[in-house]
Amino acid sequence: MNRVREYRKAKKLSQMELAEAIGVARQTINLIENNKYNPSLDLCLRLAHRLGTDLNSLFWDGDEVKNEES
Fold it and tell me: Theoretical Cys-Cys bridge with 37: which of 7, 17, 25, 31, CB 3.0 to 4.6 Å?
């Protein structure tokens, strides 16, 4: 699970606007938001930078680790 959609909407960006800003197709953003595409590290970094956040906040859910440790 990632928070790309959440951060994109908070920035009031459409999928197309985000895609154009980072140099990918709109469909790529859609696939990432729906957890159907594993983006490269470079793409993750571009997303995080454009959305004004870091990789941990965008792609890592601390609750998952807590559940695994229980």
Answer: 31
Report domain extents, the chain. 4-69
Helix H or strand E segment including 60: none
pTM, to two decimals: 0.84
Q: How far is CA 32 from CA 5, 12, 28, 55, 62, in A?
A: 9, 18, 6, 14, 19
Query: Could you read off the pLDDT of 50-64 as tens digits, one per residue?
Result: 999 999 999 987 554
What is the DSSP code string of 22-37?
HTS-HHHHHHHHTT--
Amino acid letter for position 48:
A
CATH fold group of domain 4-69: 434 Repressor (Amino-terminal Domain) (1.10.260)
